[in-house]
Automatic annotation (TrEMBL):
The keyword Flavoprotein applies. Pfam families: FAD_binding_3 (PF01494), NAD_binding_8 (PF13450). InterPro entries: FAD-bd (IPR002938), FAD-dep_Monooxygenase_BioMet (IPR050493), FAD/NAD-bd_sf (IPR036188). The lineage of its organism: Eukaryota, Fungi, Dikarya, Basidiomycota, Agaricomycotina. This is FAD/NAD(P)-binding domain-containing protein. It comes from Rhodofomes roseus. Residues 110-229 form the FAD-binding domain. Keywords: FAD, Flavoprotein, Membrane, Monooxygenase, Oxidoreductase, Transmembrane, Transmembrane helix.
Length: 477
């Protein structure tokens, strides 16, 4: 048994899914002395695009790697120019001021999915995690009262058993089915997202495109039921781009909930877009098509059915998009998934007895669920706002954006925006876990004296962890 931070119970963790959440949780758990194996059906270097890494997650990464390493693979985001997709007309500008971001504890970085994936893989394997790529889980089996250990069946026929199973297998999670005890009720939704990485080599040959590649901005082009966001990736070597096609645009039912569906660029008609957008897309090698699915039970507050993150044996848990599927290509799915992973891993670095499992799992969900729901709803709302159909609503939005362009914020607006930003970006997932332990976890352990789990008031925990500022309106991004 080894322990860096006091995980006194030596546990075999099996993580299904070696994406960003899976590798992060594996790393944090291995660092605290647990044994961890990750099973991932694909590998490194698969097609992907740009991701946003805001301060709430860059500060976690900076605990694990030097900031210089993050700045090598990421670009410090300066601001978001807001333009019309049809003609490129400038509508507004949102500053991501570096000093404000630093005040909130981190950097706002623009990265490529693959670079972060490789970084987390290196961290996890250096901490002793075993990662099996090209290995698919085809079934998940819960333990029994006599033998509580969960297991999984692999496509190659092998069965792997562990002490504890983590489902980090994304929105179409096979582990979620075991947790919920039924099939996933996913229905097609109203958003298809197309992602691509444009080779910088080609862009460099054109002065206008070179300007975008070298810029530190994250521009958004706002169209009629369609929007495009783009930014430099791989330290200005390439350019990542997402196209969001909402109901009312071309084919609202196109695509599946996967990052494996490559389609030709001319799947979309972009001939009416601003010339720079047309030029950018003409250099794209292909599009990765994915879509948002609806899960009605997740939206029904009166049912805890859809929002159960661990199973009744307390040996299987969900993190990242397997717990809460997100809008593809959103601003926050990566940061929220990594927060889940870091918080869960930090909690479980305190594990000294099997009897702690129910309280640790309840704490994990209690600490994460509300934050996930608030940030997710705001992510979708903001994405919808920049793709409003032509009409008076869109005109009013433009007037508002022109007025509240960051330079013109008065003191009141700045304060309000800062408070909202502070709630999202100021969060430190590892501190949340430590705070829970100091305020609650260790007392329940002392009261228990290593015996049976003592329950305590979750309502109290929830009150204690209420954000300083309650977010009652849309976030400014
Ligand atoms: C290949 C890929 C590329 C992406 N590119 C982008 C991007 O460019 N921009 C962006 O904003 N977001 C992208 N995302 C989504 C982004 O990673 C997530 O929104 C966020 O990081 C949450 O991550 P997650 O680890 O919870 O889920 P995911 O990122 O979906 O990771 C889940 C992992 O589980 C694996 N898996 C699923 N089922 C099984 C199984 N049965 N057996 C074994 N392994 C399994 C998947 O292959 C995947 O690697 C991408 C996701 C993937 C998988």
């Amino acid at each position: 048994m080894s322990s860096n931070t006091g995980a006194l119970l030596d546990v075999d963790f099996l993580v299904v899914g070696g994406g960003l959440a899976g590798l992060t949780v594996a790393f944090v758990l291995a660092e605290s002395g647990h044994r961890v194996r990750v099973i991932e059906k694909r590998g490194l270097g698969v097609p992907a695009g740009g991701i946003r890494v805001p301060p709430n997650v860059s500060k976690l990464l900076a605990q694990w790697v030097p900031r210089e390493e993050l700045l090598r693979i990421g670009t410090l985001c300066a601001g978001t120019p807001l333009r019309h997709l049809e003609d490129g007309e400038h509508v507004g500008f949102l500053h991501w001021k570096a000093d404000i971001m630093r005040e909130l504890g981190g950097d706002f970085l623009l990265m490529h999915h693959e670079d972060l994936h490789r970084l987390l893989y290196t961290l996890a394997t250096s901490a002793g995690v075993r990662v099996d790529f090209n290995t698919e889980v085809v079934a998940v089996h819960q333990g029994t009262e006599q033998v509580p250990n969960p297991s999984v069946s692999l496509l190659n026929g092998e069965v792997v058993t562990a002490d504890f199973l983590i489902g980090a297998d994304g929105p179409r999670s096979i582990v979620r089915k075991a947790v919920l005890g039924r099939e996933d009720n996913a229905e097609p939704s109203f958003l298809t997202v197309y992602t691509t990485t444009i080779p910088g080599e080609k862009m460099r040959e054109d002065p206008e495109m070179r300007r975008w590649l070298d810029s530190d901005d994250w521009p958004i082009w706002m169209g009629n039921n369609r929007s495009i966001c783009a930014h430099p990736v791989r330290g200005h070597k390439d350019f990542g781009l997402h196209i969001y096609s909402w109901e009312g645009d071309v084919d609202p039912l196109a695509g599946e909930e996967t990052w494996e569906d490559l389609v030709p660029v001319d799947t979309l008609d972009y001939s009416t877009h601003a010339p720079i957008v047309q030029k950018l897309l003409s250099f794209a090698p292909h599009l990765i098509r994915t879509r948002l699915m609806r899960r009605p039970e997740y939206e029904d507050d009166s049912s805890d059915e859809g929002s159960r993150w661990s199973d009744h044996t307390s040996r299987i848990v969900l993190i990242g998009e397997s717990a809460h599927p997100w809008q593809p290509g959103g601003t926050h799915p990566v940061s929220i998934a990594l927060e889940d992973a870091a918080l869960f891993g930090t909690l479980f670095s305190r594990l000294t007895s099997w009897s702690q499992l129910p309280s640790f799992l309840a704490a994990y969900q209690e600490l994460r669920e509300e934050r996930c729901a608030v940030v997710k709803a705001s992510d979708i709302k903001n994405a919808r706002m920049v793709a409003m159909p032509l009409g008076p609503g869109r005109d009013a939005r433009d007037v508002d954006m022109r007025k509240s362009s960051a330079d013109e914020w008065d003191e009141g607006t700045t304060k309000e925006n800062f408070e909202e930003m502070a709630w999202v970006f100021g969060y430190v997932a590892t501190d949340e876990a430590d705070e829970w332990w100091v305020n609650w976890g260790r007392y329940s352990q002392e009261a228990r004296g290593g015996e049976k789990h003592t329950s305590f008031s979750w309502q109290m925990v929830s009150m204690m962890s209420e954000p300083a500022t309650t977010v009652t309106h849309d976030l400014p991004y």
